[in-house]
Amino acid sequence: MRVSSSPAARYAERLDLPWWLWLGGFAAAGLLATEIWLGASGIRSWLPFVLLLPACLASLLWLGRIRVAVDDGELRVDDARLPARFVADVIPLDAAGRREVLGVGADPLAFVIQRPWIPGAVQVVLDDPADPTPFWVISTRRPVRLAEAILAARGPADTAQD
Question: Least packed by Cβ within 10 Å: which of 11, 23, 42, 154?
Fold first, then answer.
């Protein structure tokens, strides 16, 4: 494990699903399996439960797989990495702000990781002339903490260049 030069810059979050989506997903899979079970006999009577319930579990786990982390001077979102030295500004967004940034006038070149069940987000404005991406929008449950962590990770990199 590498040790970060800025302990205040550490941040980690997993964008997992809330309990009510798990409940709804398994209820829908169970109802569908029961519907198929009612019209079948023999092996076809239990096969829907064996197939649909694990498929539901795999789908829900896949939906909640995204991890957001700030450590060692970079922002990591799933497998995307952004060195903090290329961050110009970070703007915490509430649900209305996220809707405005991702709405009708959204930039098609923006990097977006959005989860509809998470109301908050951050907009990370980039300052990299070699990258056509103007900004990142990342869903998070704690937008202010994530913004502070990104800005703190950027701080030591800026002082090292002076």
Answer: 42
Nearest-CA neighbor of 126 among 85, 73, 81? Answer: 85
**What are the strands, taking DSSP E only, across 27-73?**
67-71
Which residues are registered as beta bridge partners of 126? 87
Nearest to 134 by CA among 101, 161, 99: 101
Is there a contact between 44 and 35 (Cβ–Cβ < 8 Å)? no
Tracing tokens 């798990």 back to the chain, one arrives at 22
Angle at 10 between CA 159 and CA 59, to 5 degrees: 135
H or E element at residue 142: none
Question: Order of strands, edge to edge, in the sheet holding 11-14?
Answer: 11-14, 67-71, 74-77, 80-83
Q: What is the pLDDT of residues 133-158, one digit of tens each?
A: 999 999 999 999 999 999 998 875 44
Separation between Cα atoms, residue 100 and residue 109, nearest integer Å: 16
pTM, 2 dp: 0.78
**Phi, psi (rounded to 5 degrees) for 81:** -130, 135
| Cα 150 from Cα 88, distance rounded (Å) | 10
* DSSP string across 74-130: EEEETTEEEEGGGEEEEEEE-HHHHHHHTSTT--TT-EEE--TT---EEEEEE--TT
